[in-house]
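Sequence in, structure out. Go.
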Amino acid sequence: MRLSHPSAPYQGIPPQDVFFAANDLFVQMGVGFIILSMNPQMYPQKPLEIYLHIEAQPSARDLLLGALLGRAEQIKAGYPGLSGRIYTELASGNWEMLNFYSRNGFANTDAQEEYVMPVPPGMAQTPMGCQLASVPLSSQQEQYNFLQRLNAHRMTPISLDFLTLQMQQPYFMALGFYRGGQPLAEMLLSGGSPESSALISIYTRSEYRRKGIAKALVLSAAALLRERNARQIVTQIYSRCPAQMGLMKSFGATRRRIVTILPAIELN
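Output:
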């Protein structure tokens, strides 16, 4: 079995972060790649996020994983003292790959989970000195700016095409609390029916957290959803993120299913 790098970026990933595996007859047996990101907003104590992905025949997986872990160690060495994790993402029913990663030292410490809750009753209290307003999205630049703010607080980015599609849905809302024209918290909701209103993304700027602002924003959106006869909100969160879990618990939301599993190796 042989390893090689591509001669040019692979799907936008630098060649040194991509490995091809081939057998002795030079028949390609699989590919693996690694992507570095920083996520200080969701995980301020462990912001270093090194994602790896393998698509390969069973005979090539161990070789590719070893190469990717070696590359991850090189990347980690460039950030001394910074904690984080090496992780991958699998469909919840992909037991073959889950067993593969577990056998190689990955622990199932995180999952993307779907929660459902009735549209909560009651009215929210707007934070002092703030204004509840729709996010300005009339121009493409305003849309880019909104996505940039949202994506800084997410594991996976929302694209402009996705936002454009959601803006056409009957239950679309983009709301925020603003002070002096600057956002304290913003959220994106969408959906095509009263039973499928989706809370796609919500964030609170770090200096305003733990003040109930995200909860107040959800309640503000809920009041508008009730006017449109929406009955249920569905959302997906990461079980590793205490802020997301706490928000769901505060509304008595119920976990409906595990969407993906994120096996990981911790980096201290």
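Check: The chain has two domains: 2-87, 120-230. Helices lie at 58-77, 95-103, 140-151, 160-166, 213-227, 242-250.
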